[in-house]
Amino acid sequence: MSAAANFERVDSDAGGAVLRFSGNLSLAALGDLPDRLGAVDGQVTKIDLSGIDRIDTVGAWVVHRFAREKDAAVEGLKPASQHLFDQVVAAEHPIELPRPPASPFVHLLAEIGDAVVTAGQTLYGLLGFFGATIVAFWNVAVHPQRFRYHATVHRFEVVGVSALGIIGLMSFLIGIVIAQQGAVQLRQFGAEVYTINLVGRITLRELGILMTAIMVAGRSGSAFAAQIGTMKLTEEIDAMRTIGVSPMEALVVPRTLAVVLMLPLLGFYSALIGIIGGGLLCWIQLDIPPITFVQRIREVVPLTDLWVGLIKAPVFGAIIAIAGCFQGMQVEADAEQVGRRTTIAVVQAIFLVIVLDAFFAVFFSQIGWI
Questions:
Q1: Starting at the edge strand that comes first in sequence, how are the strands of the sheet with 17-25 ordered?
Q2: Is this structure's pTM higher than 0.85?
Q3: What does each C-alpha distance from 230 to 15, 252, 332 come to in angstroms?
Q4: For the segment 27-48, what is each residue's pLDDT rounded down to a tens digit?
Q5: What band does 107 get if pLDDT is binned at 50, 70 and 90?
Q6: At 89, phi and psi to the nearest 5?
Q7: Do both 124 and 76 map to the same domain?
Q8: CA angle 166-170-174, nearest 5°?
Q9: Do residues 228 and 256 touch, judged by C-beta distance below 8 A?
Q10: What's the CATH code of the domain at 49?
């Protein structure tokens, strides 16, 4: 059994003294060691622990407290004991308490700041991805053999042909709703005939292409993000780069081209179906014959309204495709990212489409296309 804790004082000619400890510096064997250390007078420069048998947390604390009071260096501990001693020394330092919760106003400002920073980073990333897409289109134009005809035609079918049913139904119902609400309000002034003006102009100019863009963003933009995100997660995109295939040319270019080319056609189709829906309600509720409806549409709807919708459509299509592909490329780590990035792609595309639609409305108003 180890001897009780003890120490020996050795005075040095250079001034100060050295305390050499021996025995067992654990709680059961300390005895009156703390009292005897408190009675030590004079300067102590070094504490030698090379002669001890073992040391525990209490013994380490007693030695450390004495060394701190005398400003003495502690030496001679074995590696395992030194680790314990270091833990005791580190535990002496005050623990940094967590900051008190911020006020709701400060928390709100922090949330707004984080949202602004995130929006700025996303916009910067979108601009960079837009530049990379332009470079990919240029490379395909310079090297036509790289163009993937089959992939592009397949995207035409997925984005355009397969969407005709849902877009047609949506446009038909929206045309009916616009005509019904317009007729109710215009009846108060005895001007139900102007319901035709309302249906024709707002459908061709705004709602036809805007609602189509929103539908394509939710249908195809989300699909782009999910498909590319899954490929990124399964390392298919890395494999494409390894074999010398550019993911931008193989994945992004066909999707972007398909949406840019198909959205004007879908927007025009949507506007026609919306006008048909409005004409049907005018025939049933307002007793306006289809021939009269068509003649009135030709009189009151200028050709510029058609051009406005057709000009906006390719821009909206490019935004939808780039947002979907960009968010798909951002997927990392786990499958949860696929769903999250898909949601972000849809929200981002719809937001940008509406912002650009407002910009186009102001622009066309300024140049007289109203």
A1: 6-11, 17-25, 44-55, 73-75
A2: no
A3: 74, 14, 10
A4: 788 788 888 888 887 788 888 8
A5: confident
A6: -65, -40
A7: no
A8: 170
A9: no
A10: 3.30.750.24
First to last CA, the chain: 102
CA dihedral of residues 233, 235, 241, 246 (deg, nearest 10): -40
Residues 330 and 265 in one domain: yes
For the chain, the domain total comes to: 2
DSSP 85-133: HHHHHHHHSPP-PPPPPPPHHHHHHHHHHHHHHHHHHHHHHHHHHHHHH
* Cβ pair 270, 167 in contact under 8 A: yes
Domain that holds residue 12: 6-92
Asked if residues 62 and 74 have their Cβ atoms less than 8 Å apart, the reply is no
Tokens representing 205 are 């100019």
Do 292 and 179 have their domain in common? Answer: yes
Whether 155 and 78 map to the same domain: the answer is no
